[in-house]
Amino acid sequence: MKKILLLSMSLLVVGCTSFGEGIVKAVMEKREQEDLRECKVNGKSFPGLQNSFEKNGDTVKVLMVHGVGTHMSGYSTQFQEKLATELNLTVKSSRYKEISLVSQEFPEQNLGSLRVRRLMTEDQSQEMLFYELTWSSITNPEKAKIKYDTSGEYSYDRAEVNQMLKQFSNDTSPDPMVYLGKSQGEILASFRTAFCWMVGRDWKSLPETSSDECVIDKQAIQYLPSDQYAIVSHSLGSRIVIDGMQSIASQVSKIANGDPSSAESQFIQGFQQKQIPFYLMSNQLPLLEMGQNPPEVINQKDQYCIAGSEHYEQRLVKKTSIMAFSDPNDLLSYAIPQQFVQSYLDSRLCAEVTNININVAHVIDMFGMGSFANPLTAHTGYDSDDRVVALIAKGIGTKNTADIVTERCRWTQYVD
CA quadruple 346, 351, 354, 359: dihedral positive or negative? Predict the structure, then answer.
């Protein structure tokens, strides 16, 4: 009788477990099928990269800057492929061009690498040059100081999941500290050098491989009218991009007061007519502003960005459009309030911000115990999210806006 009772109880437990698993699976499949993740866009309309392809011969140059953690060349491949599909760029170069970044500022420092690929429309009349900046080589030597912590000597009695989390933490948490410490200059030099290669050469004039220093010359002026630029970044990369552009703005102000006939001055005069979009995924600007000195020029946007104003000739560009992506369940990303723009962004950038509050991680109901979303997915899932890619490719509030954005994102339009 006892054996029969135990057998019955076992079958009941197995049945309940299977039934429970079935419920969980059904709930997850239903949620994934419906995909109820939020997408809220607050700001002015923006056209996306598609707007850069208006006529034959147009070139859009996209620079991608990674965030925390060790990255290897090729980290942007998935995003690059999804972006090319959204823009209908069906032809690509058979090879990459690899450039080792060097600068006179830090002649002994390995500043990372720049990998470039060419993607084109079917008739090859329009192209996107995708520049992938990898700067991990600058911070890796510092992170090596704590590498012992995940060796067998110190981790043998650590739980398996905790060991994985510790490896992740040791690879990612030092990067902001190293950047805000002694290596900020090197990382910003890496960004400026990559930016120089992007604006200064077309595909044919880019070397297959190079370790030469980049300079702005008359060739760069030649391509300026038909080139459009965009920058995409992730997490710490948002801070690097803004700091890098602010440091370039400082150099522009000095050159603007110099010889107007020099190649650099002529390039700057053309560059100041550009409108450059920044797509900041898992934006961290407010977090990483803490403890930092403000830029040289703040709260003076009207003096620099309105035609005919006192310092109009010292602006960096005509307008910087910042699209800040943040998942509310990403513990390390933040929206950008308007007051932050005025007080903590260099006025010479002529910045305008659109905040995109988007769930890239699925939120699940923990059976009455509250809702939950994986914070790691919420931090790293932007560049694989179809809505994010569509927003970057085709914007919002224009004739090119993708169906997935129209159907899945709620837009609150801001006006002056």
Answer: negative
